[in-house]
Amino acid sequence: MKKSQIIFIVAGLVMVATLYSLPMIVVENEGENLSMEEDDLSSDFDSTGALHNAALSAEAQSVIEKLVGEMDVVDDKEKFVIFADSVASFYEEGGKLDSAAYFYGLAAEKYPDPNTWEKAGNAYYEAFGYSMDEQKTQALASKTRAYLNRVLEKNPERLDLKTKVAMTYVSSPNPMQGITMLRDILEEDPQNEAALFNMGILSMQSGQYKKAVERFELLVANNPGHIQGQFYLGVCYFESKQRNKARKQFEMLKNQTDDPQVLSGIENYLERL
């Protein structure tokens, strides 16, 4: 997974990265329309664009302004996409993921094909994962599904994208729609890492630690280098009262990572064993 993060709570409650914090959203209809009003897109960006630009360096703002100016006058679709992608990259580097997604979306609207749809969908998914505002989260999730579902229509074997779509549904008032999708993925590919990890996280969130253990054990058996999976397996051993296994797991993991967040979490649990 890209840009994965782990957040540890000293009190002993382990929460997943913001991407997996599952903010509540409203599920859109299955047949979501990819076409988006230009005015709507502009409004979304304008409401945050000034703040996002203010957080960037003066040099970055200047380059973005020039690129946007080029986008306004260029007729060639491929050049438009290059300019839009360049603007999006500046926002990505500045941590402004929703603004980056907006420009990747413009590129996908101007030059619609599976590659631009996927880039836009992935960008909206990244922004969705870090959104803390319910209304914005709804919009980001909807656009994620709109773009990635278009890719899936042409490439239904892309289980990685199907997993992302599922996660936008999991955080809705009807989470079973997403969970069912994740289960379908595991039926098709029992060793799918993204689905196993997400199902393990969801089991943790619902307090089903023994079920989570099954998911994470299978995950790390197939990929021992999956540090997040290894850590959460230790947490699940701890929470399911398998303390000897938890201690062994954490001690083993100490020798496999130098990530300060992971090491801090390990030490916190070892102190409690």
UniProtKB/TrEMBL annotation:
Name used for this protein in its record: Tetratricopeptide repeat protein
InterPro entries assigned to the protein according to its UniProt record, in alphabetical order: CellSynth/LPSAsmb/PSIAsmb, TPR-like_helical_dom_sf, TPR_rpt
Under SUPFAM superfamilies, the record lists: TPR-like
- Ranges for the TPR repeats: 193-226
Upper classification of the source organism reads: Bacteria, Pseudomonadati, Bacteroidota, Cytophagia, Cytophagales
User: Which organism is this entry from?
Assistant: Negadavirga shengliensis
Q: Which keywords does the record carry?
A: Repeat, TPR repeat
Q: Where is the signal peptide?
A: none
